């Protein structure tokens, strides 16, 4: 909470102004009961004064009452501002009521201005928090996304930040007004009767103790609520993304059972959190009612004894009710505060994650964009205790097509991830045109590389926009050229709006092969020095695959390309074939050379083309 409130620091002048407005509103509002008490005194004094003989002074009237045996009545009159024989002064009452009305109207307007300013401050803080989280996500290493649920991260960025916004919005303004009201009302109560003020204050530490104990018990449950919400979002996102697969395998019951389990866990955590925190308000109200009874009894006795006026007791009772009201409000805000704090912890956990290393300053840049890539004794592991790549050395000359083959888990995709600096090497180095890529900025490095993955990704927008994503400043002619080279142009004219056809975020209105061609066109238009194809043709038919191979051959001219392939038919023409097993290069050479060796590549090839080899 301290850290969350610390984000108000840049808005300090505005916060001070809000506090001034809130204090002004509170001062104006707390004066009201005292003035109303004065109006009550005018009425009561007039009513009693009319009963006393006209022409006497107050002291003479009191003495006459004592002589008549009405000592208690005499004590009460002695403490009043009566004029014997004079009735109620309605003119004075009208003035007091007009003044009270003006105070309350002004107080409401000032309070509205304070709430408006505070709303602006809170929304500014939340906007900055969203910006910080968005920027943080782009600075996180790929390792973080590989080890955390996307649904949970999405829940932190959306649900948790929205909850923080609501919590601050609903509690901060009320909290400021409540605290200032307690201070102002307490000051007025002390000015009226220090004894009754002491009685009223006795419930404060007890209320604070009760609230603190309940908040302590409810906080873990609120933390569990938002943790489970993130897990539930992750599960829903996973099941919706794989809905087709779930349907194909008939696993609806298992998915529903898993959802029900998480949903039930969220229900139990939410019920406990809200129930426990919800007991704060009734408890404080009960203590406030006890306080009200004590003040009413003692105040009545003091009026009867003449040590207080009826108007003062009335004002004090109003103050006592107003005094417990802010405390009750604070108690009712405990659940919102606890919920907001639980969400803040989850958001700050993302902001506190270790970021990828900073780009070097000054950064190096290759003097020539030739596309020569060299691995020099590279070592890497996802888990420090289980090395994956050890002492790997490889050179890809400009314009070469380097095919990387091997069994699943051999480290093929890891190799290209290291080229892209999605992960940092643990030892050795990788150079691009003689420059260590760790000394280059990531933006500079990745601007020289075009990458097409097996898993296609299209965003909601037109086909034209999706192709131009690889080169934001591309002209329409460049988009069309990239589309023709990648054979997107062959199918796009059959769509209702051609290149302006809008693709939804899942790309459900185009086939898997068509989506793959669009991503290849995206790489074409970027005109990179290095091209990485990770099973890029796995989703296209054999004829289209042949066409794409011819297109990539044109694209590879004077460019280095790394091709990860399981279908060895796609890499027969590769200049260099690298065979990997367990993170090591076990063979390298061209297609004919590796077949003649009858080693690991021969076995892989034989497993796919046994008939051709025989």
UniProtKB/TrEMBL annotation:
Membrane topology listed for this record: Multi-pass membrane protein
Keyword Membrane: yes
GO molecular function: ABC-type oligopeptide transporter activity; ATP binding; ATP hydrolysis activity
Locations listed in the record: Cell membrane
Keywords for this protein: ATP-binding, Membrane, Nucleotide-binding, Transmembrane, Transmembrane helix, Transport
Stretches assigned to the ABC transporter domain: 373-607
Function, as annotated: ABC transporter involved in fatty acid import. Transmembrane domains (TMD) form a pore in the membrane and the ATP-binding domain (NBD) is responsible for energy generation.
Protein's name in the database: Fatty acid ABC transporter ATP-binding/permease protein
């Amino acid at each position: 909470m301290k850290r969350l409130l610390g984000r108000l620091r840049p808005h300090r002048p505005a916060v001070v102004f809000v506090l001034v407005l809130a204090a002004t509103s509170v001062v104006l509002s707390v004066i009201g009961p005292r003035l109303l008490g004065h109006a009550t005194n005018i009425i009561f004094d007039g009513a009693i004064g009319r009963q006393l003989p006209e022409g006497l002074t107050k002291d003479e009237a009191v003495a006459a009452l004592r002589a008549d045996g009405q000592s208690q009545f005499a004590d009460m009159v002695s403490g009043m501002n009566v004029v014997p024989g004079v009735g109620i002064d309605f003119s004075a009452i009208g003035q007091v009521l007009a003044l009270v009305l003006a105070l309350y109207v002004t107080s409401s307007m000032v309070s509205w201005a304070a709430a408006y300013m505070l709303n602006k401050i809170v929304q500014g803080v939340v906007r900055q928090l969203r910006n910080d989280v968005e920027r943080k996500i782009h600075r996180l290493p790929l390792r973080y996304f590989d080890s955390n649920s996307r649904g949970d991260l999405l829940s932190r960025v959306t649900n948790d930040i929205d909850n923080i916004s609501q919590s601050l919005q609903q509690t901060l303004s009320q909290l400021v007004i409540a605290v200032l009201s307690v201070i102002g009302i307490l000051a007025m109560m002390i000015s009226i009767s220090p004894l009754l003020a002491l009685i009223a204050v006795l419930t404060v530490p007890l209320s604070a103790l009760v609230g603190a104990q309940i908040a302590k018990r409810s906080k873990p449950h609120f933390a569990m609520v938002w943790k489970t919400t993130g897990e539930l979002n992750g599960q829903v996102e996973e099941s919706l993304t794989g809905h087709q697969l779930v349907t194909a395998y008939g696993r609806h019951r298992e998915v529903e059972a898993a959802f029900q389990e998480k949903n039930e866990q969220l229900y139990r955590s939410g019920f406990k959190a809200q129930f426990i925190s919800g007991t704060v308000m009734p408890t404080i109200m009960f203590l406030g009612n006890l306080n009200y009874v004590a003040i009413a009894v003692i105040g009545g006795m003091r009026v009867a004894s003449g040590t207080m006026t009826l108007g003062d007791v009335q004002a004090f009772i109003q103050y006592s009710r107003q005094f417990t009201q802010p405390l009750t409000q604070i108690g009712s805000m405990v659940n919102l505060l606890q919920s907001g704090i639980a969400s803040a912890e989850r958001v700050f956990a993302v902001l506190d994650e270790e970021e990828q290393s900073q780009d070097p300053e000054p950064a190096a840049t290759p003097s020539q964009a030739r596309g020569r890539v060299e691995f020099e004794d590279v070592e890497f592991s996802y888990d420090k205790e289980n090395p994956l790549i050890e002492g790997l050395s490889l050179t890809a000359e400009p314009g070469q097509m380097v095919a990387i083959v091997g069994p699943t888990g051999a480290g093929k995709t890891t190799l290209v991830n290291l080229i892209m600096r999605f992960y940092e090497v643990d030892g050795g180095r990788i150079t691009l045109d003689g420059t260590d890529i760790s000394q280059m900025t990531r933006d500079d490095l990745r601007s020289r590389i075009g990458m097409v993955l097996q898993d296609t990704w299209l965003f909601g927008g037109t086909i034209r926009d999706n192709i131009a994503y690889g080169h934001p400043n591309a002209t329409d002619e460049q988009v069309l050229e990239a589309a023709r080279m990648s054979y997107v142009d062959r199918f796009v004219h059959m769509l209702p709006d051609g290149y302006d056809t809008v693709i939804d975020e899942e790309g459900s209105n185009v086939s898997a092969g068509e989506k793959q061609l669009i991503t290849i066109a995206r790489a074409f238009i970027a005109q990179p020095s290095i091209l990485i194809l990770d099973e890029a043709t796995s989703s296209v038919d054999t004829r289209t695959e042949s066409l794409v191979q011819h297109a990539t051959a044109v694209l590879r001219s004077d460019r280095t390309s790394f091709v990860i392939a399981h279908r060895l038919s796609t890499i027969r023409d590769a200049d260099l074939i690298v065979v990997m097993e367990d993170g090591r290069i076990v063979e390298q050479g061209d297609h004919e050379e590796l077949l003649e060796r009858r080693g690991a590549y021969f076995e892989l090839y034989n497993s796919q083309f046994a008939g051709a080899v025989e």
